[in-house]
Write a structure and sequence with these properties.
The complex is a heterotrimer of chains A (282), B (307) and C (352). Chain A is an alpha/beta fold. Chain A is built from 9 helices and 12 strands. In chain A, the strands form 3 sheets. Chain A has a 6-stranded mixed sheet with strand order 6-7-8-3-9-10, with helices on both faces. With 307 residues, chain B is α/β, with parallel strands linked by helices. The chains are: A alpha/beta (282), B alpha/beta (307), C mainly alpha (352).
């Protein structure tokens, strides 16, 4: 059986700079895949390759055995949804309309009423019903992010009537969210994956959250795939220190495998030759 | 002082030709030889010169509307409906005056509008606009025919021709042509002057003057240095009202103060419509200009004999 | 089940109201003018009924069928084209300030019109004297399309069109066209200058059935294509990448929209001159009342734009009758203060 997503020898060059170099991996529906890496490692670029926005200079991305570039756009829109970092909505659409737009032209055999209902359920899923009728532009950053997530959910729900399994691509989806909604969003994404019909790929900065929610972690470094960590083989301390250029004071504790990095990070003032210190629970 | 405001003189000299409007009383008008004695004419004049000629023929009674360039006589726009700018007429606007005919100067338009009016059964007469003495008498004769006054028209045209002949005789007495600069407008010390191919150039020629700005083509702002080169002996500026250009405002600009014209105080303010209209008053306008520029010829003027 | 918002209901009411408004304004446009014609006679003329009186019937019939009716249709077509195109441009550029001018239509048409007015007589004496007002619109139309094409080529690379580049190039192009127009104004005589001024203020004067026959077929495709643009423009409002993710062929949308707008607005500008403000104010007005959804915004803009321009034209031809005002003066004089008033009374939820 062919994999849902297969990336083969992907290279992306812009001018003389190779933003991504010879990346290969495959993933199946039911999985949550996190992409981590320092700034400029090529995480968002990789996501753009996976969404079909940009085409690789060399190598290929295939979905369901079909080359991404050859998939008709409408079919692709039913197959995968994307949530970008920042919403750039213009014009006074309501939150409901923004989510409803996620369903338009997607899927087959849906009536207007069906699409309305899909949009409303998606809003309910992200706890955003109360501001459904508010102007999207007047919402807070976190609220906007939840609505954007709802839009991707609605798109997948509509697309499911057309094609399955599906792919959900999330680019730093929790940057503006409070802790409760961070966990809720990632939990929702994981539940979606666990249903067995969706592959979730999420770009994250928080290694702890990545380890908590992802089945596998793709670590990018300077455009190359440094390693793929799994639950059984988590990222080693040395590798994290090398890739992120931090020194880690690791402490072991039971329960959650990682503790958030930022407390130690913020506490220590950065000296000239001193590496930032982070505390990781291993 | 040669710096004179000539408006009083202008009115005086203009009186014989561009007479005061003969208002109202269509009955009397009909007696005097209208072609449409049974049905009163309702004419729209599209073009300032058309209005001027109709008024000069003392047939203002036939006019129901004039265009916005009909600034002479000043009463025209007060007592007749204003049909707007001569190049931007409105078909329904024209028709709303129930005209029997429209006399349209060459530049009147838009053509679509005039055609629509013609389609509505209104006679539209197109009047060639030639800025020469012959063109002026042709215009007078044509307009006179259209308002049903061919005899008066012929007389007025003949009178005009005679005056141009007198003007030409006067012009031949000029020993040394002087250089004149024609200023259309004066803003912030910058003057818009008449170069070649302008009505200003035409009137200067008629007045026996050399256009000092003949290196320019059309109406152009003149630079200070070009002004120095132009070295006009005379400056003629167009004025319309009290807020307009004055002799002092011209002299206040150093480049102008340095011209021969300023030194000999030969700066004249004229009414613009009078000088540039190319209608019945043009011969007197040219004559006024000539006499202002060559005061010595004033004694040899034969005009009084002609009258 | 969840409750479905009732906005759709409100929108259909607004659309209906706009239709009624257009009909009312059309009736007013047919009935009003510097010639007063009794409503009864208007009715008789329009429906070919037996005239009840003979006095001036032929003239009135002519005024209604040959002057007011084509002018009404031309005004409605131009207004609908300008307003709907404004809405399309704002969606395409994702910028509430966008108007058809951004794709070079106005600057190109303006420059070409200046060429026609100032140079037409020199190089094509026949064309300029015999058909100056057919030559001018043709030149303006070609100028509008050419400048759009130039901007499109500049902004496109490798099959992708960058709206940001197009906007910047449009600004540069407008400056260049402005300079070109300035050069022409410099060498023009004062009559040509005056023509140029009048043209740039717009007018529906001189509307004839033949002009209607030329303009309407150019405007209609845009109005018909509107429902097909709506989904793409809605998606564009989320972002260009987002539109792509939702299955929109973004570059095809851009090409199609630019083509339709340049033809419709080019034709509108060519026959009526530059009529400002309709393209910006109408979509905004509607966004404030029916929201931003293009499915409603586009037809509503077309309807309101048509009503607005026909209404403005009624003012233009009656205020100073028997003369008439350039219509651009009317749209800006009433439009701009109204718009500012709208902005002043905005609610706390207002955001564009």
């Amino acid at each position: 059986m062919t994999e849902l997503l297969a990336v083969h020898d992907l290279t992306y060059q812009l001018g003389n700079r190779k933003l991504l170099e010879r990346i290969s991996f495959a993933a199946e529906a039911g999985e949550v895949l996190a992409i981590v890496g320092p700034n400029g490692a090529g995480k968002s670029t990789l996501l753009r390759m996976l969404s079909g926005e940009e085409h690789p200079t060399e190598g290929s991305v295939s979905i369901g055995g079909q080359k991404l570039a050859s998939i008709p756009q409408r079919q692709l829109a039913s197959r995968r949804a994307v949530m970008l970092q920042n919403s750039r909505v213009v014009f006074p659409f309501t939150a409901f309309e923004v989510v409803r737009l996620g369903t338009e032209g997607i899927g087959v055999g849906l009536s207007r009423r069906d699409r309305d209902q899909l949009a409303l359920s998606a809003l309910a899923n992200v706890d955003a019903e109360e501001f459904a009728e508010r102007n999207f532009l007047t919402l807070s950053g976190g609220e906007q992010q939840r609505v954007s997530f709802a839009r991707s959910l609605a798109q997948l729900a509509a697309g499911r009537t057309h094609i399955s399994p599906q792919i959900l691509l999330l680019d730093e989806p929790i940057a503006s969210l409070d802790v409760r909604h961070q966990l809720a969003l990632l939990e929702h994404a994981r539940t979606l994956a666990r249903s067995g019909n969706v592959l979730v790929i999420v770009v994250l900065h928080d290694l702890t959250l990545a380890h908590t929610f992802a089945d596998r972690i793709l670590v990018l470094r300077k455009g190359k795939l440094a390693t793929i960590a799994t639950r059984n083989e988590p990222l080693s301390r040395d590798l994290i220190e090398e890739i992120f250029e931090v020194s880690i004071a690791a402490e072991h504790c039971h329960g959650t495998p990682w503790r958030p990095l930022d407390s130690a990070h913020k506490a220590g003032a950065l000296g000239e030759n001193q590496m930032p210190r982070a505390v990781l629970s291993i | 002082m040669k710096i004179v405001s000539l408006s009083a003189l202008v009115t005086l000299l203009g009186v014989s030709l561009a007479s005061l409007p003969a208002i109202g009383d269509p009955g009397k008008a009909n007696e005097s030889g209208s072609l449409h004695a049974s049905q009163p004419q309702r004419i729209i004049a599209a073009g300032g010169v058309v209005t001027e000629i109709v008024y000069a023929l003392r047939r203002a009674d036939v006019l129901v509307g004039v265009d916005s360039t009909s600034t002479y006589p000043a009463s025209a726009l007060k007592e007749k409906a204003n049909v707007g700018y001569v190049r931007a007429l409105s078909s329904e606007g024209l028709l709303s005056l129930n005209p029997t005919s429209v006399i349209a100067i060459e530049s009147a338009g838009p053509p679509d509008i005039l055609k629509a009016v013609e389609d509505a059964g209104v006679q539209v007469s197109h009047l060639p606009d030639v800025a020469t003495p012959a063109g002026i008498s042709a215009k007078i004769k044509e307009v006179a025919k259209l308002v049903g006054e061919p005899v008066k028209g012929a007389a007025l045209a003949a009178e005009t021709d005679k005056q141009f002949a007198a003007l030409s005789a006067l012009r031949s007495k000029i020993e040394k042509p002087r250089r004149a600069l024609f200023i259309l407008s004066f803003m912030n010390g910058r003057a818009m002057v008449g170069g070649r191919d302008t009505s200003a150039d035409g009137i200067l020629t008629l007045a026996g003057l050399q256009n000092a700005a003949s290196t320019l083509n059309g109406w152009k702002p003149i630079s200070d240095e070009a002004l120095f080169d132009a070295a006009p002996d005379i400056i003629i500026a167009m004025g319309h009202g009290p807020q307009d250009v004055t002799v002092n405002s011209i002299l206040a600009v150093p480049a102008f103060a340095a011209t021969p014209a300023a030194k000999s105080k030969s700066i004249f303010i004229f009414d613009g419509g009078y000088l540039l209209g190319f209608g019945p008053r043009t011969s007197s306008a040219a004559r006024d200009l000539l006499l202002a520029a060559y005061p010595k010829l004033a004694g040899q003027d034969k005009r009084s004999d002609l009258q | 089940m969840h409750q479905i918002p009732q906005v759709a209901y409100r929108r259909s009411i607004v659309l209906m109201a706009l239709c009624v408004l257009l009909v009312l304004i059309a009736v007013a446009a047919i009935s009003l003018g510097s010639i007063s014609i009794a409503p009864k006679r208007v009715f008789e003329v329009l429906f070919g009924m037996e005239p009840s009186g003979q006095i001036d019937f032929a003239r009135d019939a002519l005024v209604i069928t040959q002057i007011r009716l084509p002018r009404l249709i031309l005004g409605a077509a131009v207004g609908a084209a300008l307003a709907a195109s404004g809405a399309v441009m704002q969606g395409l550029f994702r910028n509430p300030l966008a108007d058809p001018g951004l794709i070079g239509v106005s600057s190109g048409a303006g420059f070409a019109a200046a060429v026609a007015i100032v140079l037409g007589g020199r190089f094509l004496p026949d064309a300029a004297t015999k058909l100056p007002f057919a030559f001018l619109p043709m030149a303006a139309f070609v100028g509008a399309l050419m400048s759009t094409l130039i901007l499109y080529v500049v902004a496109s690379r490798g099959g992708r069109t960058s709206m940001a580049i197009m906007l910047l190039a449009g600004i540069a192009f407008a400056a260049l066209a402005g300079a070109g127009t300035g050069w022409l104004a410099y060498i023009s005589d004062d009559r040509q200058l005056r023509d140029l001024t009048f043209w740039s203020m717009g007018s529906l004067g001189g509307a004839t059935w033949s002009k209607v026959a030329v303009v309407v077929p150019m405007v209609l495709p845009t109005l018909i294509a509107v429902p097909f643009l709506a989904r793409g423009l809605n998606a564009m409002a989320l972002g260009e990448a987002e539109a792509f993710h939702l299955g929109i062929s973004v570059d095809r949308l851009k090409t199609g929209a630019i083509l339709l707008v340049s033809i419709a607005v080019g034709a509108a500008v060519a026959c009526s001159g530059l009529i400002g403000f309709v393209g910006i104010i109408v979509p905004h007005l509607l966004r404030l009342s029916v929201g931003a959804n293009y499915r409603f915004l586009l037809p509503a803009s077309a309807l309101l734009g048509a009503s607005l321009l026909v209404g403005a034209d009624i003012c233009a031809r009656t205020i100073v009758a028997p003369s008439e005002l350039p219509i651009g003066i009317i749209t800006a004089t009433f439009g701009a203060p109204f718009f500012i008033w709208l902005l002043l009374r905005r609610g706390p939820e207002f955001a564009v």
